[in-house]
Amino acid sequence: MAAEKMALAKAINESLRRALESDPKVLIMGEDVGKLGGVFRVTDGLYKDFGEERVIDTPLAESGIIGTAIGLALRGYRPVAEIQFDGFVFPAYDQIVTQLAKMHARSLGKVKLPVVVRIPYGGGIGAVEHHSESPEALFAHVAGLKIVSPSNASDAYWMLQQAIQSDDPVIFFEPKRRYWDKGEVNTEAIPGPLHKARVVREGTDLTLVAYGPMVKLCQEVAAAAAEEGKSLEVLDLRSVSPLDFDSIQASVEKTRRLVVVHEAPVFFGTGAEIAARITERCFYHLEAPVLRVGGYHAPYPPARLEETYLPDLDRVLDAVDRSLAY
């Protein structure tokens, strides 16, 4: 059966399995990805079926993980490196931004680095410090990296396939609070472009733009607003770099209002770039300024306070009401 209902984490597992089966040059590496199957069990069963030379348990050394992945890619492999938690990526930041992102340009196009860096990210699971960060804007600022984040099981499966097949390095942000959300996955479908946004709910009064963990929240906001007679369009970006500004523009030209939602801090966040570009592109269409809803410009708080820090239904609805009031 081609279509099956599965959790987002299971979809990633099945996608990794297919990649390992399809290409002997694909390797999986990271802390506890092998015998344990990952802390979220995303790689469960792969070590048993493909062995320790294809599914590699690494030391606790993120810089070493990415440096080794770069070396493997230079030798013709397609490594998929897992960073166990979002906040653990920073020891590897130098390898990612000064080597992985720049090797193609440095070699005048002669060297390709087909490396996927999987990063479970975001909050909402009651985790301890350094386990709930949203660092996507830090990587989106770096030329040479593709940054994507699925919001559902089908996209998780197909976007990971496309990321592994890409000759460019891809940072694959996995919304860990959505790991257990289930959805239909058709493993025989023909996927759309990796960096194309998708309208997940049609609307006429205002556009909500989100990606990864916040797409589900925006759908809930749109449903709540509909009970009050407001028609909100929800656009799932899917990709942070490159950004599909054409799809955002098309939606905003129809609705004439835009609210951008992400977990990461609003200050210097992805929403700032979207707001600036759409203001330039849609100045004569907008009936209200572009508004942003996100985390605060503060360290991620202890678990007992994270629901105050994270965007929720009321905060997004408040932004919707403020936009519609103009």
From TrEMBL:
Alphabetized SMART domains for the sequence: Transket_pyr
Keywords: Oxidoreductase, Thiamine pyrophosphate
Cofactor: thiamine diphosphate
Domain of life assignment: Bacteria
Record's keyword annotation contains Nucleus: no
Membrane-crossing residue ranges in chain numbering: none
Matches recorded under CDD domains: TPP_PYR_E1-PDHc-beta_like
Domain Transketolase-like pyrimidine-binding, first and last residues per copy: 6-181
InterPro entries from the UniProt entry: THDP-binding (IPR029061), Transketo_C/PFOR_II (IPR009014), Transketolase-like_Pyr-bd (IPR005475), Transketolase_C (IPR033248)
One Pfam family per UniProt: Transketolase_C
UniProt cross-references to PANTHER family, sorted A to Z: PYRUVATE DEHYDROGENASE E1 COMPONENT BETA SUBUNIT, PYRUVATE DEHYDROGENASE E1 COMPONENT SUBUNIT BETA
Protein name: Alpha-ketoacid dehydrogenase subunit beta
